[in-house]
Each structure stands twice: as C-alpha cells, then as structure tokens.
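Hi P.,

Sorry for the delay on this. The queue was packed all week, but I finally got your sequence through. Input first:
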Amino acid sequence: MTLIMNSPLEMEAALSQVDTQDELTICIDSDHEQESPMEEDQKAKVSAESPSLYALFQKTLEVKGEYPLENCEWNGEKELQADNLSSMTLHSFILKAQSLGKKITYAKSLRIKISD
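Then the structure:
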C-alpha cells in the first residue's frame, strides 16, 4: 500500500501561497495477489483442456446476458476497460478463471479529497 502525502509543513506553505481554502488529498494505491492453490502439474493439465481467457470471458458475458459488451475499450491486446460490466458478471468470470488455476491480482487506486 502506498500513501502519498506532502508533509504538513510543506502543505501549509503551499496552501498559504496559493489558496486560503483548507484542503487535503490522500491517494492510496494497493495491489493484492491471490495465488491459485492448484498444483503446477494440475494447472498444466487444466490449461491444456480449457478455452482461452478471452473465450471464457465472452462465454460468461453471453450466459449473464451482457453480450455484446457496450462502452468498452481495448487498451492494447490484453487489457479491456469495461466501465459498464456488472459486478456479478465480473465475479463469475473471476471464479471461472480461478478454477483454471489462474492467479488473480486486484489493483485498487483510491483518491480522497477533503476540503471546505
């Protein structure tokens, strides 16, 4: 977890020069990796018999009634920005990926602004 914050003295000096409004912004970035409990030899066997993650994702969208997914954008070949994906569909896909022995990494960025 990373906490980014200027020292109170630096912040007070900067605020007194720029604005009289009392304000503080706190940014927290965190990553959490969830390793698969599956043994390596079992992962290889399951991986050889399973569809690609993209195909699994598409099938999950179809089953959950969200295919085709609207308002999404590919950032490169392996990253999808999907703002309208329901939490339940995402959760279902993550559970299916875990059942294939995949490692899941959750990255979260939180920005809190406190002001007058």
